[in-house]
Amino acid sequence: MATRKIKTVYDVVCPFCGTLCDDLEVDVEIATDKVVEVRNACQIGTAKYYSSNPSPHRYEKPMIRKDGKLTEASWDEAIEKAADILTAAKRPLLYGFSSTECEAQGKGVELAEILGSILDNTASVCHGPTLLAEQDVGVPTSTLGEYKNRADLVIFWGSNPVHAHPRHLGRYSEFIRGYFRKDGRNDRYVVVVDPRNTHTAQIADMWINVNPNEDYELMNAIRAVLRGIDLDDENVAGVPKDKIYELVDLVKKCNYGVIFFGMGLTQTLSHHRNIDTAVCMTRELNDHTKFLITPMRGHYNVSGANTVFTWNTGYAYSIDFSRGYPRYNPGEFSSVPLLMNDEVDASLIVASDPASNFPQDSVRNMFKHPLIAIEPHETPTSAFADVVLPAAIAGIECDGTAYRMDHVPLRLRKVKDAPGECLTDKEILERLIKKVKEKLGEK
Amino acid sequence: MAEIKLTLKKKPEFPLEADSITPDNFSGKSIDDIKALEVYIGNQTAKLEDYFEVKGDTGEADDLKIKIDGDLSNVKRIGQEMTTGEIEIDGDVGMHLGNQMKGGKITVNGNADDWAGAMLEGGEIIIKGDTGHYTGAAYRGFWKGMQDGVIRVEGKIGNEAMLWARNSKGANKWPTLYCGEAGSFLGIHNHGGTIVVEGNVDRCCGADQAWGTIVVKGSISTKLPSYKKVGEVNGVELPNGDKIKGKFVEYSGDHSVRKETKGRLFIAA
Ligand code: SF4
What we know:
In chain A, 36% of the residues lie in helices and 21% in strands. Chain A has helices at residues 43-50, 75-88, 102-115, 128-137, 144-150, 161-164, 168-173, 199-202, 215-226, 241-253, 263-266, 271-285, 302-313, 335-340, 354-357, 360-368, 425-440; strands at 6-12, 24-29, 34-39, 63-66, 69-72, 92-96, 118-121, 153-157, 189-193, 206-208, 235-236, 239-240, 256-261, 290-295, 319-320, 327-328, 346-350, 371-375, 387-390, 400-403, 409-412. Chain B has a 13-stranded mixed sheet with strand order 5-1-6-8-9-10-11-12-13-14-17-16-15. Chain B has a four-stranded mixed sheet with strand order 4-3-2-7. The longest helix of chain B has 5 residues, at 31-35. The A-B interface holds A 89-92, 115-117, 132, 135-136, 216-217, 220-221, 223-224, 227-229, 231-233, 236, 270, 273, 276-277, 280, 321-323, 328-332, 343, 345 and B 13-15, 17, 40-44, 95, 114, 133, 139-141, 160, 164, 184-185, 188-189, 203-204, 207-208, 222, 224-226, 228-229, 254-259.
């Protein structure tokens, strides 16, 4: 009998974007434990699986900076050094967490509480404004399956899923056939509101070319028209009055509408107020028809990070434990302003790469102080770390739970072993917690 | 009036949380007791005397004035929840000055950072310089922000001042803000707050105002499309009885909240 050279893992959940596709098939060569084929995933999802294969960028052993150079060390040495850094700090920051699984995130909360540190995740620089607005005005939302089966009007506002969430359109929002949308794309009217004629806009039925940074004004006008007000202005945010009336007519007449919004709303001038008014607009549309709204979350488990942090502390991100209990105030306790003010004297970065995303000055300040990275690959952040703790890639080399953008939890699968001495994020954080407790004399 | 003088010895290396500095907390305590009050820095606890020189005569809160000297731009939460007495600050001060204050008076001869007078419930805050964002605003997730009292800022205030301000006609509470200039989203989600601006205001002024009065003696960068012109008026009478002179264009709004609204925005004609 011929021996099998390849094993196939079915129903794998893709650990890349918030769409969290759960239909992947991954082939792994048994002898080498290498991913050789990924079916059903989009390009970016596929690339993430291949990135787990051995490469010069992959960390396989813990490293400590000695005489200015990262040098290999034992796990005990590395954990000892990391714990020394964290316990000596008066204002440590724990940041990242959105690209790992929920149990590791829970351990992050535990460590933050013991250290009296700041705890933040990547929502702080992506959909944090969404969470702020939801606290102010709530959110009428649903799961993606509902949209797939029911929505006949889909609005993408400041989001470009063709590039950012490639399979979203095919699985939930545009082309897929649903229970009440038997003819798929033909049964849905698709509107894109974006200052750019994006690829998503090019395949839509209507593109609203709003001026950059004026989404708030446009939604404000739509809401007034929905209230039965005749606009004084002929043109709002670059959109002619007639077009606004046409859009309002369209949304009122649909059976079931949904707005998917992205960072074109959360990270432009009005930030959380864009979402605030978008939510109010959605709520008001329910006086006329059924309408819902969902953020297009980026990192595959950023929803999970928000959820885990919330069930542990009451808050989704930007949490400060310095006074022994959790406090919350984005802008005061979020990573970027803290680093900008040079308020952080040591950082632990888990499964994230702030050096590539944060403003330069904040990164410069982060690099001035001790830095620990829990990371599978070399990144601009880990390259400047004092301690690198090599991690298994969650969802590829270890299992766990992740939350989809609509807050549906899905089980991640392990398809292969991690290379070298890599441990899972959860194990690394557990070791750190143990060592930190020992140093602080806690049980 | 008894006076206690605090002088900052050194600029703290991290923000110092000094919510213990209120007339209420100092009331009836000896100078030594006051020196031993707790302040918080990073994840550590320190004593007030570690950062401040403390001198003066002690007394009861009602009759107590705390004078603070030095660059307090990194000192947060001074005057938090105070109910009476007075604080005078010579210099800039950090975030959350006089937040949730219920009575008494705070004067700052300098600038204040974000959240000055946040969720004010009474008393008066006077700031001679500028303030940061969220002046007199509601904290995250609260639906009732500033409920009474007066904030006077001579300079410019940042964005989202008076967020979710809430008056009470029955209890005769009229939260009021006077300022020199203002940033964007002034009076957002206003439910009865009164705002008077001497100069100009940035975009989205009065966004989502349910009711309340905003008077701008200068101009606003762009008026929201959901505000409708009502007419022109000569002088405006504020709910707290104050009269503002001058010619104004009166707008009603925010109509994105309601078709018929008592919300008013007056912009100098
Ligand atoms: S759309 Fe997102 S979750 Fe789906 S395969 Fe692509 S990267 Fe993975």
